[in-house]
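Table S5 (text form). Sequence records supplied for joint modeling of the two-component complex.
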Amino acid sequence: MRVVVPYAASEPKTRLADVLSADERAAFAAAMLDDVLAAIRSAGHEPEALATAPVEADARVVVDERPLTEAVNAVLADAGEDPVAVVMADLALATPAALSRLFDHDGDVVIAPGRGGGTNALVARHPEFRVDYHGTSYLDHLEIARAVGAGVSVVDSHRLATDVDERADLAEVLIHGSGESYEWLKGEGFSLASDESRVGVVRE
Amino acid sequence: MRVVVPYAASEPKTRLADVLSADERAAFAAAMLDDVLAAIRSAGHEPEALATAPVEADARVVVDERPLTEAVNAVLADAGEDPVAVVMADLALATPAALSRLFDHDGDVVIAPGRGGGTNALVARHPEFRVDYHGTSYLDHLEIARAVGAGVSVVDSHRLATDVDERADLAEVLIHGSGESYEWLKGEGFSLASDESRVGVVRE
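The corresponding structure-token record, covering 408 residues in total, follows.
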């Protein structure tokens, strides 16, 4: 099974601009990509990065300058009857066990929804299924699958539901993470901080 | 196995005050409690509500006015060697399948962490394990289990990780929910709304 990891090579993670500089965001995004690639490999698959520009990564890098949806759909069209997995590069909490639940699950289309209605990872085993990552893509993907007659299974995983986009998401990395992205945050002085309602992060 | 659902009977869900009145918050909290009780029953267990004051619920209600941690620890102390499950009342996305993964998992202590480091559901099968729900309780519970020599298993579930506390959490109910809490939100005019970054909710 081909396992692709889309990666925005320029100005990644803009919604972390309130806590990280542009260079820091690029370094943190690269650390998360490394973690995701390593987890996929430990789950028994050979990942490839699908990047918007040439990047250094511990995997084969395929460059496609087009927006996410178009680039992924080109992969799906190219695959035909062969299964394809698409795993987002900012799933810093992804473990081999969580990814194996996705990869090994039966179904024409298997989706790991993200918090807020996104689609953080999926497996497509139906030649007509296509993605649309705009808006509430999880619900859109259920509808697209239905329209082409593809059965859908959903993987219920907090680790795969947690894409790291915003400051509050950094707390999840500090609580549950263990790889390069965790070490990078610790090295940059981030630690957990509680207020009365929810746990967040502070930086030294 | 005793399955208790702690429930704050007075002024529940204060962090939803920006979108719901006090009466609405009480009604929504009651709808979520009903959903959780029904899901536990469908998973094959007879739930009981552990409420801070007498409430109407479709289950046996045990009243304990003390704060959450003290009330749950009284149940654990009373249980001795018998297993006890504790499931929060605001897990509007909980399904029988997700709860069965918790209830059926081996381990002295089985934890379903909540987003932000909370403990949304647990099973305790060790007579010395006690809870402490303040702060990052997930990490505290790992430490408490270690201190008493109890092995810990973690259930990786987006549904169980999603306690409904804030406006953004309502989107999860509209995306993944199906019970009384979903119907209540729809009936009150809530629907999904997207901006460029993340999906939220609007009210008619």
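Note: Residues 22-42 of chain A form the longest helix (21 residues).
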